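Contributing new records

If you add data, match the layout below exactly. Sequence lines come first and carry their own label; structure lines follow with theirs. Keep one chain per record. Anything else will be rejected by the validation script.
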Amino acid sequence: MTPRAFGAKALPEHRWATLPERGTPALLRLVAWITVHMRRWVPRLLLYPVTLYFVISARAARRVSYQYLKRMRAGPPHWWHVFQHFHCFAATILDRVYLLRGEFEQFDVTLHQKEILERQIESGKGCILLGSHLGSFEVLRTLGVTQQDFPLKVLMDIAHNQNITRFLDALNPKIAGTVIVPDRPDTLLRVKESLDAGFFIGMLGDRTSANDKTTCCQFLGATAEFPAGPILLAAVMHCPVILFFGLYRGGRRYEIYFEHFAGEIILHRDRRAEDIQHWMQNYVERLEHFARLAPYNWFNFYPFWD
């Protein structure tokens, strides 16, 4: 979910974009049928054997989960910690189906510091809503669009995981219509027009892609690459930035946290790279804080610290 038109730096072939898509159309249709025609406890129960299958079969993701959890825990993780990590991810994917169908009565969602969002809405000016692959973005996205709590569009790369993207888009075409695709000739124009119209532009700042301009930050005790795109976009658009983290708390419970990040990001010409790294490190420190609050919510299953 990062605009890539701000520079180029090739990334190794083992990054997340090269990982094969696991969900087939037939499997996704089966999931949809079970979700629609059976009580919620049935598909949630099925998550356990599904999770066990992926713990056994997804060797690369299992290894990455173990390495990540080792950074988060005082002692070495065991296989059941990896299982919990995978199960948390599976649960949020399943919940997307209910959320996209508008079944909000199924969930208990707590919003922390919602007044930050409300003040921005009252100003009539758009801003960047910067999140991560920590927890669920879909909770905020569906609440914003279908409940009309706030006008939201998202910068999203739809090239990877096309099967699941088409599956989820079909559940709610209205939400699918809010996507702004990066790397298009009109991407920056669409972002600017949306911001001028008072829209929030949602994007995730913790996953790099090929041709991203990147910066290195300290995250969980080691150096990792993060995309510079969110900071560069905010600087170009001269707009405020608000952080959000949608944490899955188990069962029906989600907590969405909002934090003011910047009224405006200014990059000085003589220290541009240092300014970018400074702002991204601030973001990464908040990401680490919330990751420690909900360690099983981290959903970057690729070698992050390579």
